[in-house]
């Protein structure tokens, strides 16, 4: 028996080497293919991310989504169905590839009645109905779908399908498709937020314009009137407010010193409510009142006529107006006044060093067409101070939750008047104490307006010494 091992046939050895070489080449080619596929998928996702941060046109971004989705999973078809902010199908934003072969599908979606209802995108049963619609159109095609979700809300559906049959699917494909869906949901949400910001900016511009117009309607400075000092300020809670004050000459044709000695009307009012509606009504009333002042009628007749003129407009808006109207004659220092349920002005008497209220009976402007108003009059003395104000002052909330209230306002006014401050200094003192009460980090809940009128102190000569006989 021979111990020599059998020798391998040369052809058999070459064939084995060839097989090993072929397997190695195939493996290398497979690895190269996988590497290229990974790089391609990375490039596709990077391109989608670039589009997300670069495109300002949502439609252009949505056109890209089904193309990227189909290429990522290596199949021919993809459908994107976004939802509008109110949950309805966003028909003009639907995208599909290939487009030519799937126009009928888009027509079916356009006529899908359930998708026309508000809140469709929040109803899982209705979304399943749309899934069945898409599947029925695809017949035997393999299909996979997922939701576009952003901030916890459904923003649409993304489908991929293979018309040739069932899908060859993997977890990698699933993750890639979900990533595309998530980026698309973020894109839709960003577009909605951008539109909301644009709307707010538009409203802000309109409010700024309204505030500018309203600030021009309020007096930009107090008039010069013989024998008195005036100071006034309106601080709206919003850009546009419903508070109103004005100084109007009853004879505007007078000029110079004759106007300073002529009769003047002082008015302060408050339209119930805040913001633009209150500001518009205040503007309307201002025009009516200025026309009424020219009639020269006493305060009670002015309010009576104004109430009748504004009745229809105010009843339609379901708002009312409080108004304190007064006129002042510098030659006699006589002040006549009527009140339409406004906060009574506070009068500090220099001689008695005490505070009282000026009030007269009367209903809100716009409440009853035939309302009657009382009329009072008083003669102001040197050193007297009259404070007109709106309820935004006394109703202001403090840090502790309490109100500024009238008692506090009276106390601060009394302190300021006893210091013999001028009208502007009294006004600044009142607002300073109000700001301190409300707190620097808090905003007024309602418009706050104050007008200070102070009668000048008359010069009094010292008594003459009796001569020594």
CATH architecture of the largest domain: 4-Layer Sandwich
Coarse shape: elongated
CATH topology of the largest domain: Phosphatase 2c, domain 1
User: Structural class per helix/strand content?
Assistant: alpha+beta
The largest β sheet comes out as:
5 strands, antiparallel
Overall number of strands: 14
Number of helices: 11
Strand order of the largest sheet: 5-14-13-10-11
As a percent range, the share of helical residues equals 40-55%
Q: Mind telling me the C-alpha Rg?
A: 40 Å
What's the overall average pLDDT, rounded? Answer: 83
Main CATH class of the largest domain = Alpha Beta
- Termini, distance in Å? 179 Å
Strand content: 15-25%
Please indicate the count of domains: 2
Stretches where pLDDT is under 50 for at least 5 consecutive residues are 459-469
Topology pattern, helix = H, strand = E: HHEEHHEEHEEHEHHEEEEEEHHHE
CATH superfamily of the largest domain: PPM-type phosphatase domain
What does this structure look like?
There is one protein chain. With 469 residues, the protein is α+β, with helices and mostly antiparallel strands. It has 2 domains: 35-193, GAF domain (Beta-Lactamase), CATH 3.30.450; 205-455, PPM-type phosphatase domain (Phosphatase 2c, domain 1, 4-Layer Sandwich). The protein contains 11 helices and 14 strands. The chain has helices at 10-54, 58-73, 103-110, 124-138, 171-217, 256-261, 275-293, 299-317, 391-394, 406-418, 423-438; strands spanning 77-82, 95-97, 142-150, 153-162, 228-235, 243-249, 264-271, 321-329, 334-340, 346-349, 354-357, 376-379, 385-389, 448-455. Strands 5-14-13-10-11 form a 5-stranded antiparallel β-sheet. It has a 5-stranded antiparallel β-sheet with strand order 6-7-8-9-12, covered by helices on one side. The longest helix is centred in the middle third of the chain and has 47 residues, at 171-217. It is elongated and about 125 Å long. The N and C termini lie far apart (179 Å). Mean pLDDT is 83; it is low at 459-469.
């Amino acid at each position: 028996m021979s111990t020599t091992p059998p020798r391998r046939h040369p052809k058999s050895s070459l064939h084995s080497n060839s097989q090993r070489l072929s397997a190695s080449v195939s493996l290398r080619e497979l690895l190269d293919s996988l590497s290229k596929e990974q790089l391609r998928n990375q490039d596709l996702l990077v391109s989608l991310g670039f589009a997300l941060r670069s495109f300002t046109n949502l439609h252009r971004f949505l056109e890209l989504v089904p193309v990227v989705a189909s290429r990522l999973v290596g199949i021919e078809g993809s459908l994107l169905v976004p939802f509008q902010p109110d949950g309805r199908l966003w028909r003009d934003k639907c995208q599909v590839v290939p487009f030519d072969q799937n126009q009928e599908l888009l027509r079916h979606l356009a006529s899908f009645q359930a998708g026309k209802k508000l809140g469709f995108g929040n109803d899982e049963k209705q979304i399943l109905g749309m899934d069945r619609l898409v599947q029925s159109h695809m017949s035997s095609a393999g299909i996979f779908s997922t939701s576009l979700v952003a901030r916890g809300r459904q923003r649409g559906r993304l489908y991929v399908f293979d018309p040739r049959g069932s899908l060859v699917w993997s977890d990698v494909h699933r993750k890639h498709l979900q990533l595309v869906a998530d980026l698309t949901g973020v894109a839709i949400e960003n577009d909605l937020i951008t539109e909301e910001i644009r709307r707010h900016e538009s409203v802000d511009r309109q409010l700024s314009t309204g505030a500018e117009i309203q600030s021009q309607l309020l007096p930009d400075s107090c008039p010069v009137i013989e024998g008195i000092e005036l100071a006034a300020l309106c601080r709206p809670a919003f850009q546009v407010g419903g508070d109103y004050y004005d100084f109007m000459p009853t004879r505007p044709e007078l000029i110079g010193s004759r106007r300073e000695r002529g009769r003047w009307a002082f008015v302060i009012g408050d339209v119930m409510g805040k913001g633009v509606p209150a500001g518009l009504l205040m503007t309307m009333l201002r025009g009516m009142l200025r026309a009424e002042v020219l009639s020269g009628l006493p305060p009670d007749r002015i309010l009576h006529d104004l109430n009748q003129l504004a009745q229809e407009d105010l009843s339609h808006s379901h708002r009312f107006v409080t108004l304190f109207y007064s006129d002042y004659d510098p030659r006699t220092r006589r002040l006549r006044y009527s009140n339409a349920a406004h906060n009574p002005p506070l009068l500090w008497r220099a001689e008695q060093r005490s505070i009282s209220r000026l009030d007269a009976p009367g209903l809100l402007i716009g409440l009853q067409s035939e309302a009657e108003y009382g009329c009072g009059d008083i003669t102001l003395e040197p050193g007297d101070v009259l404070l007109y104000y709106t309820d935004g002052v006394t109703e202001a909330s403090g840090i502790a939750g309490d109100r500024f209230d009238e008692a506090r306002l009276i106390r601060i006014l009394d302190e300021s008047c006893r210091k013999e401050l001028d009208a502007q200094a009294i006004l600044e003192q009142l607002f300073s104490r109000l700001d301190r009460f409300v707190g620097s980090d808090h905003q007024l809940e309602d418009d706050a307006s104050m007008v200070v009128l102070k009668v000048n102190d008359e010069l009094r000569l010292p008594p003459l010494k009796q001569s020594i006989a």
